[in-house]
Amino acid sequence: MTSDAPWLVVGLGNPGPEYAKHRHNVGFMVVELLAGRMGVTFSRSRKAVALAAEGRLGLGGPRLVLAKPLTYMNLAGGAVVGLANFYKVPVEQIIAVHDELDLPFATLRLKRGGGEGGHNGLRSMSKSLGNRDYLRVRFGIGRPPGRQDPADFVLSNFSGAESKELGFLVDRTADAVEAVVVGGLEPAQNTYHAG
């Protein structure tokens, strides 16, 4: 890995206040929390259709570029490529934080590469990067109840019961992102897959 290159942490979501609390926007929630921890603020990138924030994890720690694409989920890949090219981030140092229908609510899974599982944000990233070997931090949102269309489910707010746990879970997901950056994927998996 290129040690002097920053890490690019992409929160997948949709821009605009009407989407802010949706299940599909959990990636935005995580990178916003990371920005708060690092004491940095998002501003409009001149290199991509995205909001970006730069900083270090701790004193003298790894450099991170946090990103919230403003293209809507289905076209997020273009923004990711623009930022990766500008900051010279190798694909191994790109982390996508996203909601995952195929994991029960409150389950967190970390992996490198693989398929997109019908997630349009990941599909757009893989297509635009021409590569699937980026890291994924998968935040389980569970399957929709009854016969609800998954597309409607992801574009709805967390339930009341879920919302009570959401702050803790977003915090834990941000911890997992930091663990991947600082210690590598495998140790982070050992810690965060246990729960």
Describe the structure.
The protein is of the alpha/beta class and 195 residues long. It has helices at residues 26-38, 76-87, 120-129, 150-154, 160-183, 185-192, and strands spanning 7-11, 43-44, 50-56, 63-69, 94-100, 108-112, 135-140. It has a 7-stranded mixed β-sheet with strand order 2-3-4-1-5-7-6, with helices on both faces. Helix 2 packs across helix 3 (120-129) and helix 5 runs antiparallel to helix 6. Strand 2 (43-44) and strand 3 form a beta hairpin. The chain is 37% helix and 20% strand. It has one domain: 3-Layer(aba) Sandwich (Rossmann fold), CATH 3.40.50.1470.
Helix/strand order: EHEEEHEEHEHHH
C-alpha Rg (nearest Å): 15 Å
Count of domain modules: 1
Mean pLDDT: 95
What is the CA–CA distance across the termini? 29 Å
In short:
It is built from 6 helices and 7 strands. By secondary structure, it is α/β, with parallel strands linked by helices. Helix 5 runs antiparallel to helix 6.
Keywords:
seven-stranded mixed beta sheet; about 20% strand; about 200 residues; alpha/beta; about 35% helix; globular; 6 helices; Rossmann fold
Furnish the topology, listing elements before pairings.
Layout: E1 7-11, H1 26-38, E2 43-44, E3 50-56, E4 63-69, H2 76-87, E5 94-100, E6 108-112, H3 120-129, E7 135-140, H4 150-154, H5 160-183, H6 185-192
Parallel strand pairs: 1-4, 1-5, 5-7
Antiparallel strand pairs: 2-3, 3-4, 6-7
Helix pairs in contact: 1-5, 2-3, 5-6
